Request: fold
Amino acid sequence: MRAVVQRVSRAEVRVGPETVGRIGKGFVVLLGIARGDTADDAEFIEDRVAGLRVFADAAGKMNLALSAVNGELLVISQFTLHADTSQRRPSFSDAAPPDQARELYELFLSLARRRGVKVQTGRFGVHMDVELVNDGPVTIILDSRNR
Reply:
C-alpha cells in the first residue's frame, strides 16, 4: 500500500459540480492499494499517517502530529500510485482489483475514524477533481513494503 501525504491548509474534492469532501488544516492522503495488500498494510499506513509529526509546534519546528493540531484527513483512492512506468504507457496490473481495493480503502477510513480523526473522502472509482493548498510544501511518501 502506498500513500502520498500532503500537509494542507485546506482541500476539497469534487465529482462533477458537486463538492463531496472538504477539509481545513490536515492531510490529503492519496491512497494506492496493490495486489497482495492486506489489513496489516492498511493498519501500518494509517498508523504512520496519524503519527507523522510534521505540524509546527510553538517554536515553529515540525514536531506535532495530526491529533495535536485537530487536523483532518481527505482520503482519495488512487490506483495510479502502483503504475508500472517501464514503458511510456503505464500499466496498472500491480494495482489491486476494485473489490479488494475498496475493502482496504474502507478499512483505512474506519481505522482513522476510530482514532477520532475527522475524515472526508472522494468517491471510490470515479473521476474526481482534487484541489488543495499544500502547506510548506510538505509531501511525504509512505509504502507499507518499506518498513
